[in-house]
Amino acid sequence: FDSNHQQGLTRRDLVRVGGLTSAGLLAACGPAAAPAAPAAPQTGGAVPQAAQKAAWEQEWEALVPSAKKDGRLDLAWITGAQGGYQKALDDFQKAFPGIEVGLSSFNSGALLAPKVTQEHNANVYSFDLIFMSSGIDGPMAAGAIQPIKPHVFRPDALDDSKWRDGFGLGWVDEKKEYGYGFALNVFHPWWINTDLASPEELKTPNDMLNPKWRGKIMMSDPRTGFSFGTITAMRFNQGEDYLKKFIQDQKPAFSRDNRLITEQMVRGQFALATGVLIPVLDEFQAQGLGKNIKQFFIPEIETLSMSHQAWMLKKPQHPNAAKLFLNWLLTKEGQVAYTNSTKENSRRLDVPIVNPGIAIEPGKKYLWTTGNPAMADEIEKSKKIGAELAGLQ
């Protein structure tokens, strides 16, 4: 991913860029306008107000009461603490009173995906929309997911000019109609307990191979979104021999429970880790704990991540509320609520950057992993290699 869109890319760069080029305007950024109203009679009289409104406005005005009739919306989001997203949901409920929003929290897609698949096979649907960046293959193969593209119709959501590299860049599936990513940020995976290590000791990938860190590293399972991008960056930028040395010689501990990883770092059980959850760390720090847990940056290991992708279940129990939330979320108002709640930067260009530390730097090339359909095979390869090296089943 080259933030300056330079020409003359190599084949390797094409892999990095993935599907960067937008697919063009999407049906003129929304449904067609309503037919022109007939001319008013000679005797005078106003043209009916409804006839003056665009088709999308009429659809929106019909959708809001239908969503309120649903009365509820159930979401599942990958997060370690519901507080990280609750503010955005509170803003939605304030905008559309009468719709109660339920939020279920999961530590990783590896935990949410099996539940979605099992419930679909049993014709049970606990959620209307799910937000996850890994593990979706199982629910997709089972037929548990439907395309969300037909449900997004607001022109201010579809407007290419409002999104970094156009609205189309957000589609994360090969068909470009099922899953949509609205945040693209630099992913710095590594955290340090400054009581046990100094960031000055960890400037390059080779510093990570220092024997002093053996047994003092904890990582999220390499098959989850908190680690597979990191492992892919190690493979691409340092080679598979480096990855092998890192896992086999340094002997990191692995876990799918990112809350546990965060707690272990706060308790001083490990010096370095991936998978630390900021909302959980915020909880500890509000109690005066974990102030020594900091991020550290190694450019060769950072990647771009399009996290929190939206997916709609095959049979949502509250379809109108789900459609309303999805369209609202992709507007400026919805993205401001999302970024203020999560402290992640939106792809929308009219939404202020809330976290400069993970913002994309102009002119810099990045390895875009999570949410890049062109990297899907490489991600799967990384998951397999990482699990085999770690001896995970």
How is this structure best described in words?
Helix content is 36%, strand content 12%. It contains 14 helices and 13 strands. Helix 3 (55-70) packs across helix 12 (319-329) and helix 4 (83-95) runs antiparallel to helix 13. Residues 5-47 have low confidence and may be disordered.
Task: Summarize the entry for a quick read.
Helix content is 36%, strand content 12%.
Percent range for β-strand residues = 5-15%
Give the low-pLDDT segments: 5-47
**Number of β-strand runs:** 13
- Give me the number of helical elements: 14
Main sheet: strands, sense, barrel: 5 strands, mixed
Query: What is the share of helical residues?
Result: 25-40%
User: Strand sequence of the main sheet, in spatial order?
Assistant: 2-1-3-12-4
The outline comes out as globular
Provide the succession of SSEs: HHHEHEHEHEHEEEHHEHEHEEEHHEH
Cα separation of the termini:
33 Å
Radius of gyration: 23 Å
pLDDT averaged over residues? 86
Strand pairing plus helix content: what structural class? alpha/beta
What are its keywords?
393 residues; alpha/beta; five-stranded mixed beta sheet; 14 helices; 36% helix
